[in-house]
Write a structure and sequence with these properties.
single chain; mainly alpha; two-stranded parallel ribbon; 4 helices
Length: about 120
């Protein structure tokens, strides 16, 4: 059996006007994902979506205020990928800073086994 070669097709020059400081590959990837301006790539606090846009945020705030006021036990469910481990730690710290005395975390076993 003869080995097959993978041939690269020429890419049309569809470089967008934005993102001139980015490598061409990133510009093409971002454009394919619907990015149309440099502002959409900004990670500054000012450019983040408002927490008030989160569905159910009002109820979540009520539940959290109730948990703090009644010193209820709170369980943070997390995972072990880079942002999951970090967000679990930040949630634990933040809830403790709000005054909750019984905060714990769990990582579902299925997630651990899937990562092995």
């Amino acid at each position: 059996m003869t080995p097959k070669k993978i041939l690269r097709r020429p890419q049309p020059d569809t470089t967008p006007a934005w993102g001139q400081n980015l490598p061409p590959l990133l510009r093409r990837l971002y454009a394919a994902r619907g990015i149309t301006s440099d502002e959409q790539l900004s990670y500054t606090l000012k450019s983040l979506a408002s927490p008030m846009e989160l569905r159910g945020i009002d109820r979540a705030v009520e539940l959290l205020a109730e948990a703090v006021g009644q010193q209820q036990r709170v369980l943070v469910l997390g995972d072990f990928d880079a942002d999951g481990a970090t967000s679990t730690a930040v949630a634990m710290l933040g809830l403790s800073m709000l005054g909750l005395q019984s905060v714990d975390f769990r990582v579902p076993v299925g997630l651990l086994m899937a990562m092995a």
